[in-house]
Write a structure and sequence with these properties.
The protein is an alpha+beta fold. It is built from 2 helices and 5 strands. It has helices at about 20-25, 65-85, and strands spanning about 1-5, 10-15, 35-40, 40-45, 55-60. Strands 2-1-5-3-4 form a 5-stranded mixed sheet, with helices on both faces.
């Protein structure tokens, strides 16, 4: 079990829980979509997993890094769609 601190509140999660699962619990507190997480000051993708005690801060599409991540993801999706149609 890992102790995860979010917004000053500590909760316990099994090791191997994805940051996405944790973000879903907190999404209602944010007006924009959560797209990244900062784990002890290091930016991580949501598919990564908790493997130790840590402090999380969520990055949304309203944040600069979150907005850039969203734009990059949509650009890659567009390239994939064009590639699939052009085949």
């Amino acid at each position: 079990m890992a102790v995860v601190k979010v917004n000053g509140i500590e909760k316990t999660y099994p090791e191997g829980t994805t940051y996405l699962e944790i973000a879903k619990e907190y999404q209602k507190e944010y007006s924009h979509d959560i797209v990244l997480v900062t784990v002890d000051g290091k930016l991580q993708e949501l598919h990564k997993k908790v493997n130790r005690d840590c402090t999380l801060n969520f990055e949304t599409t309203a944040c600069d890094s979150g907005h850039k991540t969203y734009k990059r993801s949509m650009s890659l999706l567009l390239v994939k769609a064009i590639y699939d149609v052009a085949e």
